[in-house]
Design brief:
Layout (H helix, E strand, L loop, with lengths): L2 H24 L17 H4 L3 E2 L16 E5 L3 E4 L4 E2 L5 E5 L4 E4 L4 E3 L8 E3 L6 E9 L6 E3 L6 E8 L6 E3 L4 E8 L6 E3 L4 E3 L2 E3 L6 E3 L4 E3 L2 E3 L6 E3 L4 E3 L2 E3 L6 E3 L4 E3 L2 E3 L6 E3 L5 E3 L2 E3 L6 E3 L4 E3 L2 E3 L6 E3 L4 E3 L2 E3 L6 E3 L4 E3 L2 E3 L8 E5 L5 E3 L2 E3 L3 E5 L5 E3 L2 E3 L3 E5 L4 E2 L2 E3 L25 E3 L1
Parallel strand pairs: 1-3, 2-5, 3-6, 4-7, 5-8, 6-9, 7-9, 8-10, 9-11, 10-12, 11-13, 12-14, 13-15, 13-16, 14-17, 15-18, 16-19, 17-20, 18-21, 19-22, 20-23, 21-24, 22-25, 23-26, 24-27, 25-28, 26-29, 27-30, 28-31, 29-32, 30-33, 31-34, 32-35, 33-36, 34-37, 35-38, 36-39, 37-40, 38-41, 39-42, ...
């Protein structure tokens, strides 16, 4: 073996010796300390301190108290149920009388009895409350009576068969994935500035969802309620929501509401009722309602909507409105009915006056712009009652009378193209068959 290989072997053995020596020198003591071995981990209660709802931890108030309760939360903290609980006649089941409280129902049920009061009562002006993950049913008052509670969160919660409201919350609250079913009052009620997402309200004796000003509603459904499907205050935003089979209007608002991608079907009243004006209704569908499809007040904008089979006018708007790119068909009266100061633009109106008498578009007052609409199969195509409107670039076909326009309106020429005026076309070009020399012309075809 040459010197180079001997030297390499010697170095390898030396390195191994150093590693072993270092391990011995730097290892800790082999003997454990005296006494029992204890865990260094925290308990669940140490990580998230929680208090069970029971007679010892959360004793209630007696019947003589102004708000008697079976259980009462009177200190901030996180509370939870350990099983189903039952109400007592003349009492609230759970009373919350503190701010900064989380109540986790843990999937359990709070069940009322005859003569019981509210399932859950927020007593006083409490803030920062969270109520989640469970159900309340069959109470003599509300399922959740929380109109005094501001900045609340109600999540994954069901209220059913209560004599009062299903769920009531105060200002600035969020209500998420809540179901209100077969309560005698409103399904869900919130005060101003609240947000509702993914909620269902059905078979309630009042409105399905009733919110005050400045609310936001997204992906909610309201069906078969005695009152309105959605009754919203001023300046609310309602998106991707459905109202079906309610006893009054599908969507009703005071004024200045915005409705986008909503649907109103088979409601006893109007599909959309926004008579207060200042509303924007976009990409909505209204069908088979017993009232108007859309009834909007002054200064409203209605675009890309479809209205059909409503028993009154499909779309009826007041002064200062804009109606654009809508579809209105088979209404007993008018497809679109406007008062004054409105824009009616690029709409499709078919089969209106169904078993009644109506026009595709009917302007009852002045200062309207009626442009680019197609009206077919009604008693009257476009009907303008008084002077002072402009009617351009519209088409009418198959109406009892295609055009009924009062004197002294500004009207583009009307070309009659009901008779064939062109040969068959098969290729890349063809002669003009409109004889249109005016870009604002109207056509009968």
């Amino acid at each position: 073996m040459n010197a180079r290989h001997v030297s390499a072997r010697t170095l390898s053995l030396s390195a191994l010796a150093l590693a072993i020596t270092g391990a011995v020198l730097y290892a800790g003591p082999l003997d454990p300390p005296a006494g029992p071995v204890s865990s260094t981990y925290k308990t669940l209660n140490e990580v998230e301190p929680r208090i069970a709802i029971n007679a010892a931890n959360t004793p209630g108030d007696p019947l003589a108290d102004p708000t008697p309760s079976v259980f009462k939360i009177s200190q901030p903290g996180s509370y939870y149920l350990t099983g189903n609980i039952s109400g007592v006649a003349g009492m609230n089941a759970i009373e919350i009388d503190a701010s900064n409280v989380t109540l986790d129902l843990m999937g359990f049920r709070v069940l009322g009895v005859i003569g019981s009061l509210n399932g859950i009562l927020v007593n006083g002006t409490e803030t920062n409350l969270t109520i989640r993950n469970g159900s309340v049913r069959s109470f003599g008052g509300d399922g959740l009576s929380g109109l005094n509670g501001d900045s609340m969160r109600v999540i994954d919660f069901t209220a059913r068969n209560c004599t009062g409201r299903g769920v009531g919350v105060g200002e600035g609250c969020t209500v998420t994935n809540v179901i209100a079913d077969s309560n005698s009052g409103d399904g869900i009620k919130s005060l101003l500035g609240s947000t509702l997402t993914g909620c269902v309200s059905r078979n309630n004796g009042g409105d399905g969802i009733n919110v005050d000003f400045y609310a936001s509603i997204t992906n909610c459904t309201s069906t078969a309620n005695t009152g309105d499907g959605f009754n919203v205050g001023a300046a609310c935003l309602v998106t991707s929501s459905l109202a079906y089979g309610n006893g009054d209007d599908g969507f009703a608002t005071l004024n200045s509401g915005t409705f986008t991608s909503c649907q109103a079907f088979s409601n006893t009243g109007d599909g959309f009722d926004s008579q207060g004006g200042g509303c924007v209704i976009t990409s909505c569908t209204t069908k088979s309602n017993n009232g108007y499809g859309v009834r909007a007040g002054a200064d409203s904008t209605i675009t890309h909507c479809a209205a059909s089979l409503n028993l009154l006018s499909g779309i009826s708007v007041g002064a200062g409105s804009v109606v654009g790119s809508s579809s209105s068909s088979a209404n007993t009266a008018d497809g679109i009915r406007v008062a004054s100061d409105c824009v009616v633009l690029s709409n499709t109106c078919s089969g209106n006056g169904f078993n009644g008498s109506g026009a595709g578009i009917h302007a009852t007052s002045s200062d309207n712009r009626i442009e680019g609409n197609n009206c077919t199969g009604a008693d009257r195509g476009i009907d303008v009652d008084v002077a002072g409107n402009i009617v351009i670039r519209n088409t009418c076909s198959g109406n009892g009378t295609n055009w009924v326009i009062a004197a002294n309106n500004v009207c583009g020429p009307i070309f009659d193209r009901t008779a064939p005026v062109s040969a068959a076309i098969n290729g890349d070009s063809a002669p003009d068959s409109t004889s249109n020399i005016n870009p604002n012309a109207n056509f009968t075809y």
